[in-house]
Amino acid sequence: MAVTCLLISLPLFGLLGTVLLWGLLPFLALAVAGLWWALQRSYASGNMHEALVIDTQAVHLTRTNPRGDVQEWDCNSYWAQVDMYPTGGPVAHYLTLKGDGREVEIGVFLSEDERKALYPELISALQMARAAR
Prior knowledge:
This protein has 133 residues and is of the alpha+beta class. It has helices at 2-9, 19-45, 112-131; strands spanning 49-54, 58-64, 70-76, 81-85, 94-99, 102-105.
């Protein structure tokens, strides 16, 4: 941000002592403030976190959103089901967990390739939990 402020202020040095400086200064300050806000928002969106616990009795998903609110989902591991929607979801290869009358999205922050790789891993983990019963 310091480099950005310096580079934006370079053209202003030629305007020192003129009325035009005061006309341009608010717009340049607004541009720097907008950039600062966008960077802070981008960093905050990286704070999303999901924790999935699969054991022989239950599946528990906890999602912590960027603003800090926590969403939780529980289901009996025997009835839990993983679904992938290659098209028709908000993103390609949309992954969901279904059970206990609810369907929840998992891996919202993952790339398409990561969701494709996660799908067979989730199926395998659920099958192992059922087999261990």
